[in-house]
């Protein structure tokens, strides 16, 4: 491809070009996705298709522009700029010098549009013309322009704008790039933010691996699913061999031929709308037909000659139809008026007959009798023809009223049917989008789309057998897809100890470990149980003199265990005597309510639920010191329902609600769980450490152990048919073994 400038535009640039054999013509496919914030990003996508012989000599005109952080005035300037370039290009004479109409038009635009260089927003724009296989373009800002081609069994791409001129302060379009499109190559022009969602490599792979229409459909689908604030717009172009099925330029020498082609185009567009529906093609989101106040439409369509109804006979027909409609409307109005008056009189008469208000019943009866006699007399005086016409009017009136009622009912049911079909289509679209995300290993995105589809399925009506069948079918399909993403592993958990069989009335709910011994305990049991994890032997110890033990933890050194009672009491376990005794500790405030202990680097960390704080205590000869607040910023932090914490340098706090809070260097950090289904519900314990890659959570509600990475992304979840509701857990990450306490039984399984 070759880049060229006129004397007023600057220097010349050369790029690689391969000529396409003739006869070939260019084919254009465009896409447009409107963002959520048009003030932040407004895209103008404009394509002009020639409609007469003179315009066919000049080919197609296209323009793509994105205005970022621009006001309504700047958007209007950009729209008028595109309109001026289009008008100038098609109206400038051909062969009017050594410069073509496109370059001449851009020179004129450069002289009168410098004010756009000093607007508050940011403009990125690319304009061009395509005639047969020749293309000329120019640009301003940061649009994308690439050519994709096959070379030696590989697919390559060239950035057409790479190495081109630098922008200056005096011209919008300072260079014209010219060349031809080779058969088999595909060109891409687009707005800057497209590559935020799809890399050029990915676009190249999509475009060169499937038909152009399918490729554009796929890219449009991906960008639409991104749901970004920015809008996206772009054009893909390739060349195909011209054949008899393709439209040919009209000839000025034969008006009848032009008329024939016009009719052919109209018929074709009616039966199968073409890519370009008129001289200007509008690409916009469905439902954007209404104009919005203070918002300039992203695209518009210029009215062409074919859209104007001409000729005396069509006008007369329309006038006649209009008069007939007016006459019919007035007649219906009179009939409705008379009927309303008659119905109101009937209701008044019935009211008087029923209530005898003001003794008017006898008068009402006489009036009814006289009215009936008058009607009979009037009908009797009518001729036979009049009677037939009168009867016909009555029949027609009843038929008309019945038809209106029937059509209204049909319209109501049809509207419900349309809404239902749209709901079903939305569910199927989300499922298809989820499958596409899964192909690209975006399990989180696929999961979110399937959850949205599941919500839509639950809103489907089930008013008849077909709807019920469709509901069950879609529900099953979505559940199957979700089950695949849930990655639930049913493990063969081996029971290594049964506390209830060893000690009657055992009620253990927590599990910790010291060396090779598992320790089970609970607030509703005055005993604790030492279980050998290898042999399964159980040793029962009593702690009658102590407060109820609610939680505990073992440091990495495995030299002690720390327990907490329900009144902020701290106890330590002596490994030699196997006795739990109270130890000294104090707190910064009297209102402290302690939960969730964890020992890290010989320091004891506790959650103060009353003050939304994490306390850090250093060890002393008699126990632990008063402790200091570890959180330097706890604004908005809710630790009132924290049930467990774990530390790997950062602190992770598990809440009873199922949320996990993360703190780093004393400050809260953003953390959320993604890809997990169903969501956590009343979990009881959490574990990780600085040499453990994942976070483990035990949850009795769904009888499972959940594994997340340290960014909150779901990895896997484990359950067992033997479990009822596991509440305690010990993780041996080195041996990839998890020990679970469930219903006074200790199980183990391998990950």
UniProtKB/TrEMBL annotation:
Disordered, as annotated region: 271-301
Transmembrane segments: 308-329, 335-354, 388-407
Protein name per the record: PPM-type phosphatase domain-containing protein
Comp. bias intervals (Basic and acidic residues): 283-299
Keywords: Membrane, Transmembrane, Transmembrane helix
